[in-house]
Amino acid sequence: MDVYGLLGNPVGHSLSSPMHESAYDELGLNARYVTFEPERIGAAIEGAQTLGIRGLNVTIPFKEDVLSHVEADSLAERIGAVNTVDFSGSGTPTGHNTDTEGARRAFSRHDVALDGTSAVVVGAGGAARAVAFMLADEGATVRIANRTGTRAESLAENVPGASAHGLDELSDIVPEADVLVNATSVGMEEDVSPVPRETLHPDLAVMDAVYRPLETTLLREAADCGATTIDGAWMLLFQGVAAFEIWTDEPAPVERMDAALRRRL
How far is Cα 3 from Cα 39, in angstroms, rounded to an integer? Predict the structure, then answer.
């Protein structure tokens, strides 16, 4: 039996197990997906390799620390974070960041072209980093807005062509934007939006990285004004799809994985 899993702390809330195991069932693979809550990421990677685990997802708080324990690909190096580790080689395990592919496929699924667009990313944490690099690589001009200006500036310095802004500038930059991404946790616990409602417009494509609830205040207000909306489950789904395809070299059963994910939301 092939074993895959998730490293993080805590991981009790994770939706990865049902999503991945639905794919194993669909394709008839003799595999299981399990969760681990290690104290030290280096020991966890070494132990996983010794035990013959085939692949691991990595989440908070280990996405950055794991870089020194894997051979990261160029994209993960640029982003400064790894969320997928592949043990299929004979040497050092390889590290990837599939959050970028998750965001890219989420936009593609909704027929949103990114090349030549003006994009606003709210936030400067891990999700924001992945989304900002993806948007820039796809040809968008990226504006990063964050509560802490220094974090926005630090990220913008690394993303090609990006600029940094405070949240107080959203009223100026969102009306001119084609794409808007909330990459913060705002809207998860409270019925609030990080973006002023009056800045939204029908020509905007809005993605929210929050997936609980699926319909956040931001997405509801964006839909009310006629904007294209993309809920956070799409990015979660497609980052898992990308990881599955790295590990198994098989096309992922996307619809089956999507159904399994949304049943748990």
Answer: 20
Which residues on neighbouring strands pair with residue 179, listed in sequence order?
119, 205
- Contact yes or no for 100/69 (Cβ under 8 A): no
pLDDT (mean) for 181-186: 96
63 part of the active site: yes
Closest to 163 (Cα-Cα) out of 120, 131, 116, 123: 120
**From 63, 96, 129, 143, active-site residue:** 63
pLDDT number for residue 138: 98
Q: If you compute the radius of gyration of the chain from its CA atoms, what whole number of angstroms results?
A: 18
Sign, CA dihedral 53-58-63-65, equals negative
Helix, strand, coil shares of the chain as percentages rounded to 5?
Answer: 40, 20, 40
Read off the amino acid at residue 260.
A
Q: CA 227: distance to chain centroid?
A: 22
| CA atoms in the 13 A half-sphere facing the CB of 250 | 12
pLDDT above 90 (res 180): yes
99's tokens: 């959050």
Q: Which residues have CB under 8 Å from 225's CB, separation 6+?
A: 200, 201, 202
With tokens 């799409």, the residue in question is 234
CA atoms of 108 and 114, how far apart (whole Å)? 9
Specify the pLDDT at position 12: 85
The pLDDT tens digits for 117-170 are 999 999 999 999 999 999 999 999 999 999 999 999 999 999 999 999 999 999
